[in-house]
Amino acid sequence: MSSLGFNRDSMAGHCCSAYMEVDLDAIRHNLDTLLRHIGPGCALIPVVKANAYGLGDVRIARLLTEEYHVGLLAVSGVFEAVKLRRAGFDKVSILSMSGAQPHAVSAAVAHDVQPALFSEEAALALSVEARKQGRGRVQAQIKIETGFNRVGVKPGEALERLLRRISDAGNIEITGVFTHYATATESGNPFAYAQLARFNEGLAQVRAAGIEPRYVHTCNSGTVSWLPEAYFSHVRVGCLIYGYLAMDDYSYPFDLREAASFRAYVNCISRLQPGDSVGYGRYFVADRVTDVASVGAGYADGVCLPLAKNNGPVYVNETKARYLGVCMDQLFVDVTGIACNPGDEVTLFGRTKGGKLFSVFELERLTGNTFYTFLTATASERVARVYLGGGG
Question: Domains plus CATH for the chain?
C-alpha cells in the first residue's frame, strides 16, 4: 500500500513516466538495526538533507518523528529546514549543519532553525536578528573543525573568541557541539582518532565556558560502525538509515536493506536493421538486427549520462539488459531477445518488481560516481515517489 506520494493504481500513478519506490519497512529495519547497535545510552539524530537523500524528506521525517520520536533532525541548509517547517514539522528541532548564510539568518530565526555556528560574525548576526524579530533567545550549535576543513571553528584561540562573542550576545543558547570525520568509511583509520582527540579539546573548551550541550555528536554513518568511543550523547546518521553503507573496501558492517528503487516504463519498441541508428548524432548505430526499447526517463529525470552512453546495465522486467543511449526525456535499451512490451517496467537501480536486487553500489563501482549521486539525481518533479509499507 502506498502512502503520501501516489498509489500506482491512482490517476497520478498512471500518468508518471518514472518513479522512485521507497520501501518504508526497509527503513524501519535499518533504524532498528542501528538502534540495537548503538545501545540505549545513545540517541539518534537523523540526517534528512538533500530531500532525505532523494527518498522524500517530508515522508521520511514523518516516519522518524511519529514512529521513532526523534527530537532533532539535521539538514544541510536553512532552505531545507524551512521546507520542513512549512510542511508542519513545528515541534521537532532542526539543525542546519552548514550554518546560516547572511541572507538566510532572518529565515533561520523566524522558523526556529538551529544553525551551526563557526564564526564570530555569524554569532553576532544571529543575535542581532533575534533582537530585531523580538525573540528572547535563539538556539544554535557549534561546529568544531577537527580536520575535514569544510566548515567549523578550530579549538584554541578561534573557539575562545567565538565563545566570548556568544557570551556577550546574551541571547544565544548553545544546544549542541559536533564535528565530521574525513575517513569515516575506513575502519580504524588513525586520522579519525586524531579528529576525535581534537574534538575533545574543543568540547572541553565549550564546557569550561559554562556550556553543557544537550547534543554532542560526532559519528556519521561510517564511524558509527567502528568508533564507539565517539558516540557521546547522539550519533548523526543519514545514508545508513536508507540502507546505503559500504566501507571503502565494499565490506558491509550492517545488515541493511536498500530502500529505494528507480523505475520507468517502456514507451515503444523498434526493430533496427544494420546501419539504422537511434538518438541525437546517431549515437548508436546497429551492426545487426537490434530491438530497442524507448523508456520514459532521461537525464532530466536523473539517468546517469556516462552510464547510459557506455552501455551500462539496466533491468527490463527481470532480465539484465544494456543502455544504448539517452536524451533529456527518454533512454534507449537493447532488448534483443528479451520478451517485453510497451508498459513493462525498467529498473535503473534498486529492486526489480520480482525482488531481484540491482544494487546502487554496482553502479558506483562501474562509474566512479558515489551512490549518493544516483539517489539524489532523481530530483525532478517528474520522478514521483511511491511509498510502500505506509503505516502512520
Answer: 41-242 (3.20.20.10), 260-388 (2.40.37.10)
